[in-house]
Structure prediction request, 104 residues.
Amino acid sequence: METVAEQRKHIREDLTDPAGFRPIHAIPAQLMDISATGVGLTSKTTIPMGTPVEIVLLDNTVTVNGTVKNIEASPNGGYRIGLSFAEPQTDLAELICAARRNQH
Prediction:
């Protein structure tokens, strides 16, 4: 059986930037990885699978519509949440990764 990583259509870049998502109200989260088709976040708040969300990135300067595709409890508390973008965001993923590299 394929792992989740093997099933992905696009390579994910590891990150640790502040982020958030809004199902109805803002939920604080930490951006963990990004690809052209979605993001991985950690949050202390859970949200049901299939929930449509507005994903907030780059210090609240960019919002992208998406859907909760995966959620699992984290061993250190909180949740690991996988969100898929409504439309591929190749330029956004590249922009975030470039900005992150420039910070180091």
Q: What stands out?
A: The CA atoms of residues 66 and 74 lie 22 Å apart. The first strand starts at residue 13 and ends at 22. The beta strands are 13-22, 27-35, 38-43, 52-57, 62-73, 79-85. The chain has a mean pLDDT of 83.
